[in-house]
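Figure S7 source data.
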Amino acid sequence: MEKISNVYCIAGMMADSNSYLIDNSDNDSDFNYIIVDTGVGQSEDYLSSQLGEIGLSFEDIDLVVNTHCHFDHVGGNHLFPNAKIAISEIDGDCLEDPESPIPICFVQTREIKRRDVDIRLKEGDKIADFEVIETPGHTAGGISLFDGSILISGDTIFSHGGVGRMDIGGNMEDMKNSNSLDKLSKLDVEYLLSGHGPWVSNANEHIKMSVGSFYF
Ligand SMILES: [Zn+2]
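Tokens for the predicted zinc ion complex:
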């Protein structure tokens, strides 16, 4: 498993999002091990073995952060019995409300096991050394995380010039009006860790490609 700084990168299987495990155990914090996005929830054995490679189990994870509320990012939340769940205000409503369909469920009818939201994230909040950046567009409450070097971008942007689709619970106007992409393009980023596909170095180039493809 590749480790970039204090982040272990776990490639998603099939429809799973990638998961990123932040080792925060060197800091004095309630949250020693933080996982960002948890996949669909059907790759329990795989995720377990990936955590096992670094001597961890599901029980060791203290905090789950969801970049947004799509099923392929939140479906595995229930695997972490001791973790608090953190997500943005808007997408948190979607996660908690049994009446609100988790967007993108139409491509997968399986019920998501819902978990209550413990922490509602907003712009500027800190997750370990990462700062929360609100990046609505792909969903109304999408967030990215940046620690001054690594950008965890969820499905807002991908490596090699991709931007998350906006027709599955998101909104093109949100993406434009919120300046989500402008905000990301102003950062000086070394590594781009996106929700799907490969994580990459030389991130500024990849971000430029993504933003360019959106405004083309
Ligand atoms: Zn998504």
